[in-house]
Amino acid sequence: MQSINPATGKALKEYKTLTSAEVSEKINLGHKVWLDWKKTDYEHRAKLMRKAAELMRAQSYELAVLMAEEMGKPLKEGTSEVDKCAWVCDYYADNAAEFLQDQHIASDASESYVHFEPLGIVLAVMPWNFPFWQVFRFLAPALMAGNAAVLKHASNVPGCSLAIERMLLEAGFPPQLFQSLLIGSKLVPQVIEHPLVRAVTLTGSTPAGKAVAAAAGSNLKKTVLELGGSDPYIILEDADLKHAAKQCATSRLINNGQSCIAAKRFIVVEAVYNEFVKLFVAEMNNAVMGDPKEEDTTLGPMARQDLRDDVHVQVIESIVNGAKVLLGGQVPNREGAYYPATVLADVHKGQPAYDEEIFGPVASIIKVKNEDEAIYVANDTNFGLGAAVFTQNAERGKRIAAKALDAGCCFVNAFVKSDPRLPFGGIKESGYGRELSPFGIKEFVNIKTVYVA
């Protein structure tokens, strides 16, 4: 396994991958450790989790450099990601005991209540785009609930995967409670099938989610899936256009455009279309493309050259089918997997810019007549992860977000983001289950009824 710097195309380091037998041995060791870990109290777990948060904050710059080198994230975004990981650790350290306390329910018994118990080892299959946050938003609640975990991280971020294991050991977590499995995707079914692996969580593409769900389903393993998205942002005629343009551009360019919940389709009512497009293109044009380790860079390279090439194919196919380029759209003549901030207009059904998720810094603008058509277009997708609506009428915005948009996370006058305090996840081909909040920690526990006659 090899990590490659996407800014230069040069190899950083090679890593030895595990054999099938070594994977099984690690799972067996993890189970033995879990048998003791599940007996620990919340206070003990919280102490270690807070120490992990402390270590991450102290090492945020070094970890951001590691992300920049392995997958191209700009340093400012990398340090913010690490800080967010520390936040989720503190959040569950502070709240896990309350979230999982016994819930007494009246029945015809003398006493009846719900008790929450850990399941065992949870397998996480995680992507490269947020190599620390994607892991910790499952890991913090899983460990605080009393579970163990093994991680199959993306093959281009092995250094990040091992850094997480190292930090947990430094924080005092037992060895083998969390283990990084440096394996390829071919061994994932074996891990799922292992009788001591009790559940699976995956963040990634819809095809990957379907494959993991099929393998888990055939083995009756609980799954949580957070998959792709083609998030619609509706711009209504009463929106604050300057605010909307800034929020939309920020969301589209986060992590070099490589985020499941990034804004991707911008649905603008015709009354404000020209003005919004002007403001939005200007905001997108402000992106500073360059070395992700340079402090002023806001748009680094994409994570791999093949991913950059795939995005460019989607752009070209959209243009061939009628889309108009307002900004970008050309592969830069420089080393590395760079792609410029790109804006496509005249986007309609039948183009990749409308029908598919474009996982890069490419914005699709769609003109509609009114609110009803905007909602129709927003929901005209197989995905359902995030969505946003911009209007200065708060009640109108809440109505559309709560009642009209088919997505798991719907925001009003702000770009979609995850927050440890709020449930996160999607519907349709964006997956199922929820991470974060009180809902997330209850995904991987046995919700047990206790009945006393």
CATH fourth-tier homologous superfamily of the largest domain: Aldehyde Dehydrogenase, Chain A, domain 1
Q: How confident overall, as mean pLDDT?
A: 98
The first-level CATH class name of the largest domain:
Alpha Beta
CATH fold naming of the largest domain: Aldehyde Dehydrogenase, Chain A, domain 1
Strand order across the largest sheet? 12-13-14-11-10-15-16
Q: What kind of sheet is the major sheet?
A: 7 strands, mixed
Sequence stretches where pLDDT stays below 50 over 5 or more residues = none
Number of domains: 2
Q: What is the rounded distance between the termini?
A: 57 Å
**Overall shape:** globular
Overall CATH architecture of the largest domain: 3-Layer(aba) Sandwich
Number of strands: 18
**Share of helix among residues?**
40-55%
**Structure annotation, total helices:** 15
Class based on secondary structure composition and strand pairing: alpha/beta
C-alpha Rg, in Å?
A: 22 Å
Q: Roughly what fraction of the amino acids lie in strands?
A: 15-25%
